[in-house]
Amino acid sequence: EDQVTQSPEALRLQEGESSSLNCSYTVSGLRGLFWYRQDPGKGPEFLFTLYSAGEEKEKERLKATLTKKESFLHITAPKPEDSATYLCAVNILTGGGNKLTFGTGTQLKVEL
Amino acid sequence: DGGITQSPKYLFRKEGQNVTLSCEQNLNHDAMYWYRQDPGQGLRLIYYSQIVNDFQKGDIAEGYSVSREKKESFPLTVTSAQKNPTAFYLCASSRKTADSNQPQHFGDGTRLSIL
């Protein structure tokens, strides 16, 4: 069965304290991995797409990396406005077309 | 600005009642999706549509119905057969390209509760 697991479930950081979020997956036919940010009461906001092992993408304080079994979202010198839930999703080719399977997310809180 | 509009933001359903959630996009995207989000669970796919007048069941389609009469619109009806409808419902859309590996873009959701 295709599975996506995110860890930790929750993370509390001090402002400026860098860390990484993990997304591990066991799927067949991976076609891409997506990272999203979700604020309370809002829909997920697209951050990155990663297609192949070794690929990296950056946006401001965020950098996403991908290996054959997992992806990391590195947060460098975070600020309070980075507080949100971060979701990863894998895109799998099925008989019915492409399908996204989501992890349960990491809830990040950045404090002053 | 282009985007996805979901309405209403909050919705209450009485027992035995059907309710319809609206989703409209002006991104000129071909594909549209409905997800359900519950606390502690990942987003789960209810229905999706890759073209007008065609749609497919997702992982949890029982108790739900959809239509796709226009490219811009993909309404979701939560029927009385859905016994646990309380959740946050998210609509998404994406471009349909040859490799179909485009990111999905989401609306801001509708929170449905039972009276």
Strand content of chain B: over 45%
Q: Give the SSE order of chain B as H and E letters.
A: EEEEEEEEEEE
Helix content of chain B: under 10%
Radius of gyration of chain A: 14 Å
Distance between the termini of chain B: 35 Å
Attribute tags:
heterodimer, A: 112 residues, six-stranded mixed beta sheet, 63% strand, globular, B: 115 residues, mainly beta, seven-stranded mixed beta sheet, four-stranded antiparallel beta sheet
Give structural notes.
- The complex is a heterodimer of chains A (112) and B (115).
- By secondary structure, chain A is mainly beta.
- Helices cover 0% and strands 63% of the residues of chain A.
- In chain A, strands 2, 4, 5, 9, 10 and 11 form a six-stranded mixed sheet that branches. In chain A, strands 1-3-8-7-6 form a five-stranded antiparallel sheet, with no helix packed on it.
- The mean pLDDT of chain A is 93.
- By secondary structure, chain B is mainly β.
- Chain B contains no helices and eleven strands.
- In chain B, a hairpin with a 6-residue loop joins β4 (31-37) and β5.
- The model of chain B has no long low-confidence stretch (mean pLDDT 92).
- Chain A binds chain B through residues 4, 31-32, 34, 36, 41-46, 49, 51, 87, 89, 91, 96-105, and chain B through 4, 6, 40-45, 48, 50, 56, 58, 90, 92, 99-101, 103-109, 111.
